Amino acid sequence: MARQTAISVNNIEKTYRLYRKPSYRVFEVFCPGKKQLHTPFKALDNISFSVKRGEFLGIIGKNGSGKSTLLQLICGIIPPTKGTISVNGKVSALLELGAGFNPEFTGRQNVYLNATILGFKKEEIDRKFDAIASFADIGDFIDRPIKMYSSGMVVRLAFAVQANVEPDILIVDEALSVGDSYFQAKCTKLMRSLIDKGVTILYVTHDITSVPLLCERALYLECGRIKTIGPAIEVVDRYLRDLRNDQYQRGEADPGQPIHGADKNASVVDVTAEKKSTDKKPSSLIGYQEAKGKEKSFAERVRDYRYGTGNARVIYLEMIGMNGEPLDTFGFKEKITVRAFIETKKELDALNCCVIVRNKQGVEIMHCTTREYGYTFDTIKSGTRLVVDISFENILKPADAYSIHYTVNNTYSLENQEILDLIELAAVFKVKPDPQHPIYYLIWHPFSFSHRIVE
Ligand SMILES: Nc1ncnc2c1ncn2[C@@H]1O[C@H](COP(=O)(O)OP(=O)(O)OP(=O)(O)O)[C@@H](O)[C@H]1O
């Protein structure tokens, strides 16, 4: 059955009047017919497209290309200069940070205010309030005035309200970039579940890699016109090619050259689980006491992201850089160590630790288990405290946020294993940009090359 149209945009134009001085605007209003003092500026021109119900459309384009203007038109915040827009369903929008919130009111009062504006009765909001507050996860701040919130808290609350009021159409304008990585992962999950429920989502972002992963289709705006609209992967590819060509024109990149030199000695991912001797006191035992001190806050943070039998438990996990310091940002090719402090509650004869590195859209980029890499543990008694280091060379695309999914299993075979502790968002980290090693794809991979000249 053909899907219903949720949004239909027909030949839209939006022209702003640009004045060199604010007083010229007043003068034009009060002296009509006199000399025109403004310059017309078409922020959008000749825009036509439609979005089906349950579709996730990404909108991309350089700064000033008209993305936000288009969303504002669809939400009815500003009128078009020409053309028509029809919207079929209840729209929830997250446009400007904190727009729609009264700074003097508490978070709780603003939730009621917003939901009332969206057409909900008090009893309905009462029913939804706990889900909204729990999603926003801002603790006691919910009863403090919004003016005391950080920008991250404002966006958490705003997203929680907009996404939990059962919209037919959800419009999100880059707002998520203000939240931290945990929150962004939560929002992505929620948006996916909304799509499953038939909600239509329009999503403006500069995080280009997220578009093919989240969206079916994408619309690429350039200087207020549609450059292309179609399958997200193709549109993003076109956009990235244009960006690279722009860089080339400015002398910043050479699209004809390989980005990196080959390193014939480099391994793909150097995964080593570093075994601690059990007969001599490992140096990290001092760290273990500190880890115990952090156990409660770690457990609290990962509470919603973990499951398992609990027969072994990660009490704390940290990311360590090449100097042995806990870090949350790493450089290109830096050795990253994921250090887990684990306590066992039963004897384990097939301990297997697993790390998955995901990007912020949830794509699994790298994965290892100690077992699969041939690293074995001796039988470990109940009540043992151990520190397991899993290290890899950082070959990830910079400036992106990544999360670590950590699992402790007792694994005899794929079919016969006990999940002891599985933590979805055990840690998050970022990768520093390195001008010497720009990485345009998800990972830098060490290729090797050869050639011969045939006469
Ligand atoms: N109220 C306004 N008056 C005049 N010009 C405006 C107004 N609002 C937006 N513009 C202009 O319209 C163009 C499109 O702006 P818009 O904010 O829609 O772009 P955008 O693609 O969302 O940019 P960004 O990625 O930087 O957020 C820009 O050149 C902007 O300066």
Automatic annotation (TrEMBL):
<dbReference type="InterPro" id="IPR015860">
    <property type="entry name" value="ABC_transpr_TagH-like"/>
</dbReference>
<dbReference type="InterPro" id="IPR003439">
    <property type="entry name" value="ABC_transporter-like_ATP-bd"/>
</dbReference>
<dbReference type="GO" id="GO:0016020">
    <property type="term" value="C:membrane"/>
</dbReference>
<keyword id="KW-0547">Nucleotide-binding</keyword>
<comment type="similarity">
    <text>Belongs to the ABC transporter superfamily.</text>
</comment>
<dbReference type="InterPro" id="IPR029439">
    <property type="entry name" value="Wzt_C"/>
</dbReference>
<keyword id="KW-0813">Transport</keyword>
<dbReference type="Pfam" id="PF14524">
    <property type="entry name" value="Wzt_C"/>
</dbReference>
<dbReference type="InterPro" id="IPR050683">
    <property type="entry name" value="Bact_Polysacc_Export_ATP-bd"/>
</dbReference>
<dbReference type="InterPro" id="IPR003593">
    <property type="entry name" value="AAA+_ATPase"/>
</dbReference>
<feature type="domain" description="ABC transporter">
    <location>
        <begin position="24"/>
        <end position="248"/>
    </location>
</feature>
<dbReference type="GO" id="GO:0016887">
    <property type="term" value="F:ATP hydrolysis activity"/>
</dbReference>
<keyword id="KW-0067">ATP-binding</keyword>
<protein>
    <submittedName>
        <fullName>Teichoic acid transport system ATP-binding protein</fullName>
    </submittedName>
</protein>
<dbReference type="InterPro" id="IPR027417">
    <property type="entry name" value="P-loop_NTPase"/>
</dbReference>
<dbReference type="Pfam" id="PF00005">
    <property type="entry name" value="ABC_tran"/>
</dbReference>
<dbReference type="GO" id="GO:0140359">
    <property type="term" value="F:ABC-type transporter activity"/>
</dbReference>
<dbReference type="GO" id="GO:0005524">
    <property type="term" value="F:ATP binding"/>
</dbReference>
